[in-house]
């Protein structure tokens, strides 16, 4: 397949947009080559500017769980647009989507809508700090909570006392309030809590990690976090921007029957429009302005087009309860097929999967945290990525990304993908 026009368009974009992209994950930095420019998409397929059709395993990084240009969402947006695209005043639609979300997700009474997952996580932490009157938070290495300052903290020695900023522009003052823990390591978390007694406002976690490949929590990890939070007056924030309305109707809280104090959403909840949200029991949410002292706002928050798309998406997921089962079956089928051919071709690999999230790592050791995820062989991944691209299959251009399975994929698409993996892995 040729990607000539995409390369030309990228050269044009680079002149006026830093790196040619509006979000770094879209660049092909880790795999080489130039990004594919999309013209349109429908169902499970992307159509690019060179006229290629690609089977899409990113799906806008998660939102398109029912496929691209999903009819009910498209219709809802068109109808709303005719009535005006933004008012900066309340609409009934906002109450409708809020009520539906509250009915679908366990343990939340109220929800506030924002414009991105980043905003949701940033606001959730501010709310937790205001509510507990404490400053510090614990986050896990390899978990992504958007690009606001407090979250851009990576590894760093002395994490028990000071985090180290890993992006210039994040001040040392901000970094020192973010403590870093190892995913799936409860003892590490307990030690941080002991060393910072009565100072920690919240623990924020991807309850199933999806930003270092797909890493499910070890048995007892989330339960342990819940207990540590309860015992120490800390709020547990589940960042379900990726997992919410994907792994189950009510997200990971429902899947594993664990109660979080604040839950963050994004991606699926907006049906492909820019939407984020955070939610909690009333006692916590009432701390937000205008009811309470914690300020949070947004000119375009609750935008009618975005809410119409989100409502149509949630209604579809709420009505057809079999969707999650179907997604589980399709993803299990794909993972088993890939496993079989990689094994037959003597490739060194590990596959992680839960529900409709799956990741292939080119390393044999179990991938359970950032350290083990980072060990994968990137040279093999590059061959894998470009090999699949030549076969018309689009996975994320980074070895640390999860594949997002959409209900629009057919078993023919999955079989085609497994055959392509077979062909490509023979060239490793
Ligand atoms: C994508 C993501 C975010 C950030 O959401 P944006 O809409 O990109 O700002 C936050 N947390 C998790 C777990 C995510 O996957």
Please provide a written account of the structure.
This protein is an alpha/beta fold and 428 residues long. The chain folds into 2 domains: 4-69 and 322-425, Alpha-Beta Complex (Aspartate Aminotransferase, domain 1); 71-319, Type I PLP-dependent aspartate aminotransferase-like (Major domain) (Aspartate Aminotransferase, domain 2, 3-Layer(aba) Sandwich). Helix content is 37%, strand content 14%. The chain is globular. The two termini are 20 Å apart. Residues 155-161 have low confidence and may be disordered. Bound molecules: pyridoxal-5'-phosphate. Residues 116-118, 121, 144-146, 206, 210-211, 239, 241-242, 266, 276 line the site of pyridoxal-5'-phosphate.
Question: What key attributes describe this structure?
Answer:
Aspartate Aminotransferase, domain 1; alpha/beta; globular; 4-stranded mixed sheet; Aspartate Aminotransferase, domain 2; binds pyridoxal-5'-phosphate; 14 helices; 14 strands; single chain; 2 domains; 428 residues
